[in-house]
Structure formats: structure tokens, C-alpha cells
Amino acid sequence: MGSASKAFNNMLFAAVLTASMVAVVVSGFQFEVGENMGWRKPTGKEPETYNEWAARNRFHIGDSVHFKYRKDSVLVVSSADYLTCNKSNPISKFDDGNTVFQFDHSGFFYFISGQPGNCESGERLIIRVMHPSEVEAPELAPSPSAGGNSGWNSDNWGPPGVISSSIKLSVVSYFMTVVAALCVMVCLFV
Ligand SMILES: *[C@@H]1O[C@H](CO)[C@@H](O)[C@H](O)[C@H]1NC(C)=O
Q: What range does the record give for the signal peptide (predicted)?
């Protein structure tokens, strides 16, 4: 093949690599609130509360939570209104049954149900979105699985260094995969 097609391949390589880098930075993870059961008034037989679920997860800026519900609503409220289940002055209110809420900053987000009595029964959720400085923890964990059960709970909002390292590792391995795949493609066609 001529040098023109080589140049074209190099350009293609650069373009695809750039696009995949942008995709990683921009896209967030979408969490499913309540997993299979969705957003509803707890019966008390659930394996965990909404906040226990939230405590098991790490939320980053750009991530979102998906609420699936029927005859219910999602109110974003202040911490004071969360504590008292006060539904009278929400920051935002959603009742379309299928709500995706994206985190645009770090810190705490408070969600309660707008149905009478539901918040009081445990249909409420606190999510803490990690600050970027926590995500860029410098040390690398020996294994991504090391942080599986790290004693993280609603009383302990300490920085999850091990988990953020594993996220960094997975981003690195994603890039290695993309780069390797592209090298193979370019080598085949040159
Ligand atoms: C709920 O909040 C509103 C506005 O802040 C307040 O006027 C009301 O008294 C509160 N209701 C309860 C039950 O605390």
C-alpha cells in the first residue's frame, strides 16, 4: 500500500482514539435505584434499604440514578426536609415513572417519595457524590477486587481510596484494550 493510505490509517487511528477518550470522560454510569424492585414503599422484607444500597456504591460526577416507579414520585429535597420527610418544598419533583437524575456536582443529594407516608416507611435515599480529588487517589490497589466490602456505611463517609484506584485501573485497562485493538486493525490494513 502507498504512503497515502498509511497516512489515512494514521489519521483514522488518531480519530478513533480521540473519540474513545472523549467517550470515557463524558459518559457516566447509570445506577438502578432499588435494582429489580425499583422505587417504591418498602415492605420491610427487602434485603437492604435504599441507603444500604447507596452505601455499597461509589457515585461520581456525571453518573446518574434511574428511578422506576408507578403511582409514586421522586422529590429532590434539602437535608432538613429529608430528615423530616417534608414534601412541601422540593428542589425538584418528578412523577413520570421513569426518572433519570444526573449528578452535576459532588456532595450529598437527598431523594424522598412524594406519596403520603412512603418516605416515613423508608422510601428515601441519600447519595453522596465523590469529589474529583477523591477519585484521583494516587496509590494503585494491588487488585480491583480488594475493596469489595470496605465497611462503608451511612455513618462513615470517609474517602474510598481503594475503590477509586480500581476505577482508575479499569479505565487504564479499557484504554489498553482500545489501543491494542486499533494497533491490530492498523497493522492488518497497512
Ligand atoms: C415543611 O416545610 C415547610 C416549608 O419550609 C414548613 O412551612 C412546614 O411547616 C414544614 N412541615 C413540617 C411538617 O415540618
A: 1-28
If you measure from the C-alpha of residue 109 to the centroid of ligand 1, how many angstroms do you get, rounded to a whole number?
Answer: 19
For residue 18, give the C-alpha cell.
Answer: 480521540
Segments making up each domain of the chain, as ranges? 29-160
Distance 164 CA to ligand 1 centre (A): 39
Task: Determine if the pTM surpasses 0.85.
Answer: no
Closest CA to 50 of 155, 151, 127, 128: 127
Query: Has domain 29-160 been given CATH number 2.60.40.420?
Result: yes
pLDDT digits (tens, 9 = 90+) for 110-160: 999 999 999 999 999 999 999 999 887 655 555 544 444 444 444 444 444
